[in-house]
Amino acid sequence: MQRLRDGKESRDGKESRDDKALAGIEFESLGVDMLIVDEAHHFKNLGVPVASADLGMQLSSAAKCEDLLDKCEWLREAGHGSNIAFMTGTPVSNSMSELYNMQRYLAPGTLKAQGLDTFAAWAGAYGQVVPTVELKPEGNGFQVKQRFARFQNLPELMNAVKQFTDMITNDDIQLPLPELEQVPMPVPITDRQKKEMEKLSDRADRVRDGDVPSEVDNLLKITGDGRKIALDPKLLKGHENGRPLENGKIQACAENVARIWQEETPRLGTQLVFCDSSTPASGGWNAYQDLKDRLIRLGVPAEQIAFVHDAGDNPAKRERLFAKVRSGEIRVLMGSTQKLGTGTNVQERLAAIHDLDCPWRPADLEQRLGRIQRQGNTYGHVRDYRYVTEGTFDAYSYQTVERKQRFISQLMSSKSPAREAADLDADVVTLANIKALATGDPDIQRRMTLENEINQLKLLRASWAQQKADTRRDIGQQLQPRIEGIRQAIREKTDDKPLASKALSIHQTARMNGRWEGMTINGQPVGDRQTACRFLHQAAHQAHDGDTIAEYDGLPVIARRAATSGRITLAVKAVHEHESGTEMPGPYLTGPSSIVSQLDRIVRNMATDPGKLTERLADAERELAAAQETLAEPFAHEDEYRRKQAELERLTSKPDETRETEGRDQKTTQKERSENMPLTQENVRRLLEQDPDITGITQGGNAMGNYLEARLTDGRAVQIDFHDNPAWKDTDPLAGRIEVSYANRPQAEWQYDDNDMADREHTVIDPSDPDAEGRLAKAVKDWERSGGLGRTSKASHLAAQQPPEEYAYRWRKPGDPDRHIAYLSTAFDRDQAMKAREDAGYLVTKVEEDPAILYERHRKASCLHASHILERYDSPDPTAVGILHGIVSEVNAHDPENDIAAYLTYPSDKAVQLAGDGLTEADIAEKREMGGWDPRTDPLMRINEQGDWTGVTQQQADQLVWDNRDEILARASYDSELSTWTLHQLDQLKEPQPAQSLDRDRPEPDREAPAQTESTTKRRGPRL
Predict the structure, then answer these.
(1) pLDDT digit string (tens) for 535-594?
(2) What is the CB-side half-sphere exposure of residue 394 using CA atoms within 13 A?
(3) Distance CA 330, CA 335 (A)
(4) pLDDT tens-digit map of 904-945
(5) pTM for this prediction
(6) Where in 341-411 does DSSP place strands (E)?
């Protein structure tokens, strides 16, 4: 409380008006042991460190947020941390980074345990932060800001969030909500609006060309004016004295509201009208008063129309106004999302809502819908009318906001398969879309619709693929082993029944004669059951695992001891050994719980018919058949998915048509051609992703524009700068061109010395050149070959290519039984790659089946093939050892809790940096002392089974992965994120043979395929 008071004094320079209240009774004295916060999204503006301000977070806290954080911390210190409850319908309103502050309120311990208690660490784990060039807020120039380009590791982020959240949707609780019908209301664009939209396009051209100072005009102003034009051009600056639009959205809304008012008069049905663009608070002419005047002219009484702004922020006035709406006294209420959204309960007679404009944020649209689709509404069917002026920004804005809201909903309900996504901040309409919308391009809305539909189909397809992968895993790990186990048990019962029946007969005969037949323990006959129990217990504890300690009814009794726990069990052997499922009882237990009674049950079970086992086998086989049927089912929407993807590719790749603009010179310059570059950033990324010698791609930005950095398998890098920053287009001599530069190490590893960049002349490419893609490919390939890549690339644990999504093909050399598989993102890329392979002399085959399923089989077959090959080696193979190290690192990156993490080693000079995250210096010192690692003498560090740090040599590390190669490959076969480059390396492994050339089968598409000779060693193992 004192910290809050001090903060207020420092901000205001004088005492706060709340000081008297704060000086009274303290919160700690109230005896509060539980805190419930409703509409918790209002408390998201919690301050973060200074360096984070650019990333969508606030530098300074709102007083109410700081106060709430203090109360949460006090409750946790008092032992009531589990009694803090937040409730909200919009957990993410504008940016994914808001989840960080929610964790600070509710789960700071989890953040600290993960080492993410600072926002910089959290942003590094879940976001890709890049520098971007933006317009200054005052509009007088540009500035470089750090922004989230994308959010990444979303499944891990949501797993952390769901540790302290319960997410309940309407589908979960089945509330009696009215059925909502969304009614789009397209309004034809008027000549006046069309003329203003054309002016926007001209303004966008001038902004792009730098003909107008940024403080005078910019894309942000153009976007705002576009929204005003859609509502009424009278809202534009300089048009204040113009007449209101006669046949625009406001008139269409007035006619709709008046019609519904008339139809719902018997029930006193009410309506809400939302408009954020022009409110009574703006002064002068506004859309609210204009709509009210039109409604009055259409027959709606003025006393039944109200503005929520009339009640201001006074709670009593607002409640009186809402009560009149609930009673039907006021039947049309207008307001903005902020004033008429959260906290408005007027749903009792609400028949319809009207969206005159589109809000900026997904949460605002959700809040509007929440006013009418709400428990307590007496209408079973309600409508949401959305007014869209054709040929303006309206449709684009609605679809963008809906797409973001759909992503948030999927993410919060665990239905999103995406690992990364763009941030959700409100966008400014891009230059390309301004021109498309202003000129009435019919394709832009179709593209938006296709993108939304394809995203939904991808969600269904990913769910289908996951179901098939789960089914395949169940078959391989559960159903087939279970069936084989039951069959083995039936076979063993059949083998053991004669001896077991004979033993059971001896036991039953003795029992009928009223005596116990006795047994022999370590060669000594024992005739008393209680004595036999004590002797058995003693003998079992003295025996080693597998020792025979007794004979009972002609069958040997064997002691079994667990290696780790020391747990002792007894087994009886006929032809096969049958072990008790429970630990050996104590020596003094009698009756059914005694040791001898346990042996009786084992013998009796051995002698019975396998009837129940047969039933279990039949059930398991039926379950297996059903699983195999599920596995064979194709994706029901595959044809629709392929068709829509092809249509989207066609629309996306359709060249922009040139639009004539009055007053502009029609001569096309070289720089203007470059701005419509056929070689785009997306094309370059796709080209790099196909290169097997590239293990990772980073996107970033600098003063000159965007860039892509590609990391090579040997640790070097190549950077592609696009020089697309409009602020530097008149001063940058390479503006509009692509520059390829070469580095000895990626930027993340720069030491800022002369060795960072290679002594190699940069390559400059004109993107409008028809051969631009070929020149770029040659520049990258030449740099790879300068280091020996493209022929004998060594293994790298940095490979991060994601498993395939779309298209694949097989290729091989003539005469070679091996088949390699390549995965690409589009059908066009696949066909181009196949042609290049074919031209180089390779045999290629298009893959028609789903690449996701093919990848699953490919991964398992590659690991099994490698396991069979490596078991034939008498000594460690250097190439295979490198691949095994890479697999251990890659699997560990995907799943840090995996079974083979114990085989991971770290260079001693980077061990603390790589493995010490979240550890204190004392923790590290203790682990070093316990494990004996000395970074001065040990080249590598390994974390042993006890979690201590021990030193190893490179030879020991190599021997470690070699000795455990079967386990490593088995674990890799179940890693659904294992890179295709790793599979390619495993496929290239050769059986041991003298003087083998390791690069003989390395693909070289640029060269003619060498002639193949018949191999003298017959290849074995599975082949795809």
Answers:
(1) 999 999 888 888 999 999 889 999 998 877 788 999 999 888 888 878 898 888 888 888
(2) 26
(3) 14
(4) 888 888 788 777 766 777 778 878 888 888 888 888 988 887
(5) 0.44
(6) 350-355, 381-389
Helix (H) and strand (E) counts for the chain?
34, 28
What is residue 803's DSSP assignment?
P
Residue with tokens 């399923």: 853
Q: Phi/psi class of residue 84: alpha, beta or left (left: φ > 0; alpha: ψ in -120 to 50)?
A: beta
Whether 382 contacts 183, CB under 8 Å: no
Contact (Cβ atoms closer than 8 angstroms) between residue 154 and residue 411: yes
Q: Encoding tokens for residue 167?
A: 């997410």
| Average pLDDT value for the chain | 76
Q: 639 vs 57, 213, 725, CA distance in Å?
A: 44, 50, 41
173 Cβ contact partners less than 8 Å away, ≥ 6 residues apart: none
pLDDT tens profile 825-860:
666 667 777 887 787 777 888 876 666 777 777 888
Cβ burial, residue 276 (10 Å; 0-12/13-18/19+): buried
**b vs e for 770-784, b when ≥16 Cβ sit within 10 Å of the residue's Cβ?**
eebbebbbebbbebb
Does pLDDT of 814 surpass 80? no
What are the CA-CA distances from residue 997 to residues 184, 761, 883 (Å)? 68, 34, 17
337-to-237, 256, 350, 728 alpha-carbon distances in Å = 24, 20, 16, 40
Token readout for 357 is 């404009």
The count of other CB atoms within 10 Å of the CB of residue 658 is: 10
pLDDT, tens digit, 9 for 90 and up, residues 746-760? 877 776 555 667 766
* Mean pLDDT across 380-391: 88
- Tokens standing for 63? 């007083």
Residue 251: closest CA among 326, 354, 181: 354
The predicted model gives 595-614 an average pLDDT of 85
Both structure tokens of 879 = 């190439």
Helix (H, G, I), strand (E, B) or coil at 532: helix
